[in-house]
Amino acid sequence: xxxxxxxxxxxREHSIGKKFKESDKVGEVYCAKGNPGMASDxxxxxxxxxxxxxxxxxxxxxxxIDWAFIGPEIPLxxxxxxxxxxxxLKAFGPHKNAAMIEGSKDFAKNxxxxxxxxxxxxxxxxxxxxxxxxxxAKGAPIVIKADGLAAGKGVVVAETLDQAVEALKDMxxxxxxxxxxxxxxxxxxxxxxxxSLLAFVNGEEVYPMVIAQDHKRAYDxxxxxxxxxxxxxxxxxxxxxxxxxxxxxxxxxxxxxxxxADGNYFRGILYAGLIATKDGAKVIEFNARFGDPETQxxxxxxxxxxxxxxxxxxxxxxPVVTFKEDGYTLGVVVAADGYPGSYDKGAKxxxxxxxxxxxxxxxxxxxxAEGKLVANGGRVYLVFAEGDTLKxxxxxxxxxxxxxxxxxxxxxxxxxxxxx
Length: 420
What we know:
- This protein has helices at 11-21, 53-62, 73-77, 80-86, 96-103, 105-114, 128-138, 161-173, 241-261, 294-298, 306-314, 390-401, and strands spanning 2-8, 26-33, 44-46, 67-70, 91-92, 122-125, 142-146, 155-158, 184-188, 193-202, 205-208, 213-214, 217-219, 223-226, 231-234, 267-277, 280-287, 328-336, 359-362, 365-367, 373-375, 379-387, 409-410.
- It is α+β, with helices and mostly antiparallel strands.
- A hairpin with a 2-residue loop joins strand 16 (267-277) and strand 17 (280-287).
- The longest helix is centred in the middle third of the chain and has 21 residues, at 241-261.
- The mean pLDDT is 95.
């Protein structure tokens, strides 16, 4: 029986741990630090921070952990997989050098340029005046991205020149994103619907997952600031399968092969954030791990054994990867009022055990003095459901979500609407 340690604390890690628990090959699933909402699914919480590599390694040794699964990007960028391997332990995720595909947008753009992977025209700047001159010559709309990690919030789609200049000031002069914004990538605006194509990757071996569509803006109608994601659904019926298949061949496989050729062997989850343009799919960004909230709607569709897939990849065996071919899964994030800006904590989480047609996945939650779940983060929890049609899945989620008391929290009411 496999004993697994999941590292991370959010909804993504709750979904990952929950899926591992479905396997009859799995004994215990631990999560560090996890969140108290996970306990209802039999996941054991470990009170060790994700940046305390030494303590995590000691825990893994003491508890006969077969391997760790790394959820978030920050420990990957900090070299947690390298540290586990140096201690003689296995961990699933890319090494520090390969995690740079997410850690630096300039790194990713250079990879795409070298291997002819379709993306927007772009330039990288560290100098405000040079960046401003480029933006003024290009005109709006235009996209400004902090080069480094910014928790999904370091991207500004500027619809006017004033917005673009303001974004450059924020990043290059006022250091709104600290070191992450010391360098910015300015790229052409691409028009089309976005979709997320994730794949299990081991060197040049690529095993694609069902595609999903995330909703990044805070409010209905794609208005408001960018967030870490307010909801998602899978699959995405308005994106032709032919485009997905072509993206696997022209984007994901060349990226994996290119990383290997460059000496940055990638083993882990490769996330391609794509946009369906009139010229085909193009890359908006690469991530080096599962997306959140895409994980919460993609993993429920996996019909083969998730734990065995990871075990096979870690042991250089070819995994069996199969997904449901019919039906849809849709999830809606409930966030604290004020998110993604400053927000209050402590709002009471409604009793989700009463949900009949949908399932709750917890993220930013804590226990209060009475042991009840309360809000403790920006994105608090997600409710997902499956249906024969996307409309059915959507109705199941909103019918039940609307009956819950979500004082001090909000959610979008249009997740999935772009498909209709």
